[in-house]
Design goal:
By secondary structure, this protein is an alpha+beta fold. It has four domains: 93 residues, Rossmann fold; 56 residues, Dna Ligase, domain 1 (2-Layer Sandwich); 128 residues, ATP-grasp fold, B domain (D-amino Acid Aminotransferase, Chain A, domain 1, 2-Layer Sandwich); 100 residues, Alpha-Beta Complex (Glycinamide Ribonucleotide Synthetase, Chain A, domain 4), CATH 3.90.600.10. It is 31% helix and 26% strand. A hairpin with a 3-residue loop joins β10 and β11. It is globular, with a radius of gyration of 21 Å. The chain binds adenosine monophosphate and glycine. Adenosine monophosphate (AMP) binds next to β8, β9 and β17.
C-alpha cells in the first residue's frame, strides 16, 4: 500500500514510525513531513492545508490511504474532498470535525445527548458575556468558539481576568472570527486525562489512557503550552473509570453523531476532567492528540494500518486492536522563550546517541535539516520518548536520553510522569 500522512509534528512522526512497521505498506509520503520522518517517508513540498494539491497528488500516485494529523484541514473538509475524489482518508468529515472546530456546537451536542460536561452559557455579545461573568463570579472558564491554535481558553481565577479574556476574544478579535462567540463554563476541579478512541461511524474502541502536561513549568506552573510531555497508561483512569467513560461519553457521542446524520470516523479525542462526581468532558478533539499519540502508539501491538482502514470502511468491530503491557513517557524539549517568541536555527546534537539505548525513540516536532545538521525550527522541538515495563524506570530512561541531547536554550519539564508515580505510591 501507499500511505500519505499529512502534518509535520511529533504526532505525525509517531504515526509514520508506526505505519512503517506494517507489512502492508510499501511506500509512505509525508506532507510536508520533517527530518525525523524522512527516515521512513518521502517528504513532499505540500503544506497540510493545501487540500487541492494533496487530493491531486494522492490521485496521481494512487495513494491507498491518507492519514490526516492536524485539526485545521479536517475542519476545512479535507476528508470530504478525498472521499469525493474516490480516495480513502482517515479522519472525520468537515461537519463531524465541528466537535473540535466549534465549542458551541460541541456543548449543544453534549447537552442534547446527556454527555457529562461543565455547565455553560454561550454569547455573541461581549457586554452580555461580561454581565454573566460578573454575576457568576470566579473561578470561571472563557472559551473562544472556534479553532484558536490551543490559545482560545482562559481558566480565570478572578473576574477581571475573565472580563479581559472576553474583551480580547470578542472586542479586540485576538482570534479573528473564532472569537466572535464565546462559551462561558463552570470551572471543573479534578485531574485531567486524555482518551483517544478509534471510530468507524458506529463502533468506538478506546486506546490506552494518557495524560498530557500543558503548563510550561514543573508542578503545572507557568503559561499553557501545546503540551510539554505525556505518559501512558494513566493510572487515574482505572478499568472502572474507563468503562464509565465508554458508557457515558464515547458511546453516546458516536451514537449521537450517527443519529444526527454526521457519522463520526477517525480518532475521537475526549479531553476529560476526572472529578469527584465522575468524568466530565473538557473538550472533544477530532484527531490524534499531540503529544499523547507519541506515548499511545508505542503500546499498540496490532498493525495500525488495518485499524485505520476499518475506521474508513465501517468494519472496526471485526478488527483486532491489541495493546502491550509497556509504560511510555515522552518529554518535550522546547526552544528557549516558548510559548512566547523564540529563536530558530539552533544546531541539535546527541539524538543518535540518545536513540542507541533500547526503548528510546526521539520524535521530531519542530526541526529542519540544514547542511550542518538538524536545527530547531519550532517551539516544541523534540519528543524524547521512552518505553519499558515499569513507569518509574521508564521516566528515568526518558530523562537519561534528554540529557544526551543539546541545543542552545533548550527547556523541558523535569517532572513528566510524576503524577502517575504519586498515584501508584498512594494506591
Ligand atoms: P481546551 O482547549 O478546551 O482543552 O482547554 C485547555 C485547558 O483548559 C484544558 O486542558 C484544561 O486544563 C482547562 N480547562 C478547559 N475547560 C475547563 C473547565 N471547564 N474547568 C477547568 N479547566 C478547564
Ligand atoms: N495534547 C493536546 C492536544 O492534542 O490537543
Amino acid at each position: 500500500m501507499k500511505i500519505l500522512v499529512i502534518g509535520s509534528g511529533g504526532r505525525e512522526h509517531a504515526l509514520v514510525w508506526k505505519i512503517a512497521q506494517s507489512p502492508l505498506v510499501e511506500h509512505i509520503y509525508a506532507a510536508p513531513g520533517n527530518p525525523g520522518m524522512a527516515r521512513y517517508a518521502e517528504c513532499l513540498d505540500i503544506t497540510a492545508n493545501d487540500i487541492a494539491r494533496l487530493v491531486a497528488f494522492a490521485r496521481e500516485k494512487g495513494v491507498d490511504l491518507t492519514v490526516v494529523g492536524p485539526e485545521d484541514p479536517l475542519a476545512y473538509g479535507i476528508v470530504d474532498r478525498f472521499t469525493e475524489a474516490g480516495l480513502a482518508a482517515f479522519g472525520p468529515s468537515g461537519v463531524a470535525a465541528q466537535l473540535e472546530g466549534s465549542k458551541v456546537f460541541a456543548k449543544r451536542f453534549m447537552e442534547r445527548h446527556n454527555i457529562p460536561t461543565a455547565a455553560y452559557a454561550e454569547f455573541d455579545d461581549a457586554e452580555a458575556a461580561i454581565a454573566y461573568v460578573r454575576k457568576q463570579g470566579a473561578p470561571i472558564v472563557i472559551k473562544a468558539d472556534g479553532l484558536a491554535a490551543g490559545k482560545g481558553v482562559t481558566v480565570a481565577h478572578d473576574v477581571d481576568t475573565a472580563v479581559n479574556a472576553i474583551r480580547e476574544a470578542m472586542i479586540e478579535c485576538a482570534f479573528g472570527a473564532a472569537g466572535a462567540k464565546v462559551v462561558v463554563e463552570e470551572c471543573l476541579i479534578g485531574e485531567e486525562a486524555s482518551i483517544l478512541a478509534f471510530c468507524d461511524g458506529k463502533t468506538v474502541v478506546p486506546m490506552i489512557a494518557s495524560q498530557d502536561h500543558k503548563p510550561l513549568l514543573d508542578g503545572d506552573a507557568g503559561p499553557n503550552t501545546g503540551g510539554m510531555g505525556a505518559y501512558s497508561p494513566a493510572p487515574l483512569v482505572t478499568p472502572d473509570m474507563m468503562a464509565e467513560i465508554q458508557r457515558r461519553v464515547l458511546e453516546p457521542c458516536v451514537a449521537g453523531m450517527a443519529a444526527e446524520g454526521m457519522p463520526y470516523k477517525g480518532v475521537l479525542y475526549a479531553g476529560l476532567m476526572i472529578t469527584a462526581s465522575g468524568p466530565r468532558v473538557v473538550e472533544f478533539n477530532c484527531r490524534f492528540g499531540d503529544p499523547e499519540t507519541q506515548v499511545v502508539l508505542p503500546q499498540l501491538q496490532s498493525d495500525l494500518v488495518p485499524i485505520m482502514q476499518a475506521c474508513c470502511e465501517g468494519t472496526l468491530r471485526e478488527t483486532p486492536v491489541a495493546w502491550n503491557d509497556d509504560a511510555c513517557v515522552t518529554v518535550v524539549m522546547a526552544s528557549g522563550g516558548y510559548p512566547k517568541a523564540y529563536e530558530k536555527g539552533k544546531l541539535i546534537t546527541g539524538i543518535d546517541d540518545a536513540e542507541r539505548e533500547p526503548g528510546i525513540k526521539v520524535f521530531h516536532a519542530g526541526t529542519k535539516q540544514m547542511p550542518e545538521g538538524v536545527v530547531t525550527n519550532g517551539g516544541r522541538v523534540l519528543n524524547v520518548t521512552a518505553s519499558g515495563p515499569d513507569i518509574a524506570a521508564t521516566i528515568e530512561k526518558a530523562y537519561r536520553a534528554v540529557h544526551k541531547i543539546h541545543f542552545d536554550g533548550a527547556q523541558f519539564r523535569t517532572d513528566i510522569g510524576a503524577k502517575a508515580l504519586a498515584r501508584l505510591t498512594t494506591d
